[in-house]
Amino acid sequence: MDQLAALRALRRVVELGSFTAAGAALGVSHSIVSRQIRQLENQLGAQLLNRTTRRFALTAAGHDYYLASRDILDALDAADRAVALHQAQPSGSLRINAPMAFGTLELATWLPDFARQYPHIHLDLVCNDRIVDLLDDGFDVALRLARGLPDSTLVARQLASSRTVAVAAPAYLARHGHPATPQDLAQHNCLMYSSGDKPAEWLFTDAAGASHKVAIQGSLQANTSVALREAAVGGMGIVGAAAFIVRDALRSGQLVQVLPGYTLLPRTLYALYPHSRLLSPKVRVFIDFAVQYYQERHWD
């Protein structure tokens, strides 16, 4: 027996005054309504309606059961309406994880536009340079800058690609000279991103497409690219960083590009979120907004 259908049938019978009217309202025959209520009575072991050939009346148990079932159905209908409103108008808390540099230098430039477009979404941004577990740590979506992603049950949506450049302060290059080839980096103090894949190995490509793998060493490694950028601005050494991290320092002349004839492997920006047949509206609009944003502008 479908108890919820039986509760709805009982309510219609009581409020409309007949089995025929209840059946018409529910889109079923009056005999089906009568059977549903009899099955409900059998399950409860109590008579809910006193029936005659012309009318019916609630028993004392039926009256109490009708009032309780009406409250249950009203609460369920209210919950259905709330979900429908939520689907139509994305709302609730959206918990986002992003790398420290990306979250502070890049994401912060377009997140306000997203917030204005979706004012009913509460944004909870957590920036760090460690790999989090979205499910265990309670995140709805994570943004990753990587040269590749490990196999995962998460959905990975590619958003954009960011150039990676080797840079240094003019003062450092004045003291130590400009490297002419990637192999010359062995004689330089290179600042390493410790959270990256193989931080002591940089891979360059020359104009002809040939690869140059270089082992580097230096006096500083850090798990945030912003710290490495500031160390490079201070003349400490050469750093390989995503272009958006050092863009302003290059424009101001605080940093200059080294080895301009070679390119480091780019990093790809991904949005990661749990696989679900019914994607949460707040996650869906965030992903769609990010996709459109990076389609309309060249990141670097």
Characterization of this structure:
The chain has 300 residues and is α/β, with parallel strands linked by helices. The chain has three domains: 3-88, Arc Repressor Mutant, subunit A (Orthogonal Bundle); 92-161 and 269-296, Periplasmic binding protein-like II (D-Maltodextrin-Binding Protein, domain 2, 3-Layer(aba) Sandwich); 162-267, D-Maltodextrin-Binding Protein, domain 2 (3-Layer(aba) Sandwich). The protein contains ten helices and 13 strands. The protein has helices spanning 3-16, 19-26, 30-44, 60-88, 100-117, 134-137, 170-176, 225-233, 243-252, 281-296, and strands at residues 49-51, 56-58, 92-98, 121-127, 141-146, 154-168, 190-193, 201-206, 211-215, 221-222, 238-242, 256-257, 262-274. α2 crosses α3. The longest helix is centred in the N-terminal third of the chain and has 29 residues, at 60-88. The protein starts with a helix and ends with a helix.
Please name the CATH topology of the largest domain: D-Maltodextrin-Binding Protein, domain 2
Instruction: Compute the number of helices.
Output: 10
Low-confidence spans: pLDDT under 50, at least 5 residues? Answer: none
Q: What CATH architecture of the largest domain do you see? A: 3-Layer(aba) Sandwich
Annotation keywords:
rod-shaped; eleven-stranded mixed sheet; Arc Repressor Mutant, subunit A; 300 residues; single chain; D-Maltodextrin-Binding Protein, domain 2; 3 domains; 13 strands; alpha/beta; two-stranded antiparallel sheet
